[in-house]
UniProtKB/TrEMBL annotation:
Keywords, alphabetical: Disulfide bond, Protease inhibitor, Signal
Domain TIL: 56-112
Name of the protein: Putative tick til 10
InterPro entries (alphabetical): Ser_inhib-like_sf, SerProtInhib-TIL_Domain, TIL_dom
Secretion signal, residue range per the UniProt entry: 1-30
Record-level Gene Ontology MF annotations: peptidase inhibitor activity
Amino acid sequence: MSHSKMTKLASLCLLALLFVLCSLLLHVRAEPNTADAVLLRGEQRGINWRPPKNFCPPHEIYLRCTNSICCEWKCGTRGRRYSCNRKWKSGCFCAAGYNRNQRNKCIKERRCNRPWNPAVDYEPLIPKRRLGYAGF
C-alpha cells in the first residue's frame, strides 16, 4: 500500500472512532441521571426490578405494589392497617412484626404502646469526620 492510501485509511478510521465516541457521549448525556428515572424506565418496559438488600432502612423490606396491596401497621391505629385505600407506590415498608412510629421508623410491635425511650429509640448523630473544634 502506498503512503497516501495508508493516510486516507487512518483518517477514515479516526473519523469513524470519533463518530462512535461522540454518539455514545450524546446518548449518555441525553439519558436522565436519577434513580427514579431508571426505575420508571424499567417499570415502563415491564422489568421486575428489585433494589439491593441494603436499599431499605433497618427493619424494612422492599415491596413492589399493585392494586393497593401494600399496607403496613402503624403505631396508634389499634389493630387497623395503615391507609390501604390510597394507591401506594413500590417502596420500603415495615417488615413483619414491626410498626411505623411517629418518627417514621419501623419499631417492634411491642414498643408502640411504650413512651419514647432515648436509650432504645434514639439514634445518635456521629460525625463522619473530625471537625477540628469543640472536641470533635
